[in-house]
Amino acid sequence: MNGLAQSPMLPDLYTVQQVRRETDDTFTLELGLAAGRQPFRFLAGQFNMLYVRGIGEVPISISGDPGSPETLVHTTRAVGAVTRAMRTMKVGDMLGVRGPFGVGWPVEQAVGHDVLVVAGGIGLAPLRPTVYQLLANRDRYGKIVILYGTRTPADILFRKEVEAWRARLDIEVYVTVDRATEGWHGNIGVVTKLIPRAPFDRTRTVAMICGPEIMMRFTALELEKRGVDTDHIYLSMERNMKCGIGLCGHCQCGATFICKDGPVFRYDAIQGLLSQREI
Amino acid sequence: MHTLEPILAEHPFLKGLKQEHLALLVGCASNVRFEAGAFVFRQGQEANHFYILRDGKVAVELFAPQKGAVAIDTYGEGDVLGWSWLIPPYHWRFDARAIEPTRAISLDARCMRTKCEDDHELGYELMKRFARIIEQRLDATRWQLLDVYGVRS
What number is the ipTM of this complex? Predict the structure, then answer.
């Protein structure tokens, strides 16, 4: 826990400082820390349980910069009762937060390696803190390659930031869409198509993948085909998290709890779970 | 004299092909270039070539009445464009248009088909490589149709 909550099951209250509409159905909430409160330190890839009073609680990855722990940032899509209520929030509204929970991306283990970040759709949000960290310590890594697949050009998350990353000379960024619309001159097709010719050294690459499970499964297979070892591939699972601390058992898969042992897993440790349909 | 053989030998699609087979392919190959906006082929036309892309970008499009040209896929450096030359009646099913200046090696389809008939080992090797491409594109199409990034509720 981050310090102030007495119990991991008790949410702390935060004030919404900024609401940003990212795309038609995704939005970012920036939460401010009350005066005197400790900075909210977290690892890239960790998540919080966000609580809307009277409606419920959902697990949402932190999408902000671990280097700026004075602001707590979450980006999500409005799909259920809680996230729909969150979308209507205004500056000054209160939100309950428990966390941070779970295991983060292997940013430290990747030092000295090429890093491949593969995001699908809203999966870019949990990877964004990693990108911030990689860029803040650029000289500690080899090549940094970001592959991002999304539904249409209008669904590109953090568009301005993605454009800024693409403009940098020290990283490679490729974006592809499933369906093009007028005016789109970029790549069309699934994100795995970008892998065969992405400029990284397969023998010294750490890959981090986040998106729909089907996208992660095909991406991991394509990376294996390219020659990346399964113990250098990491992905973030999202199934059925409820309590965040491995107590309730909702996200349990055999001996594994997604919320406590993940959400970030090494591919060879989770490979079997990806083929489990009803968990 | 410079030939296209070294370029073909290094292309991911043809890597590992026997020397004698590469030499046969070179006999059917020529360099081509397409300016941005130029059609590489049009739906319904005879599929008389296929293309090994060296750089640039080509969009495969489907023309739909009242919608116009809908781009459904893009190909670039290292990709192979077109497999209708391999399967009767040898007609293109889509339009392909360069959306960037594009350099490619064009392989003459009649020449290729003749060589594959004359040398079944070459034919089988190429068929295996094209089958892999067709399988990948089928998988990708199914995945696109699933709309995996769509909203779940």
Answer: 0.86
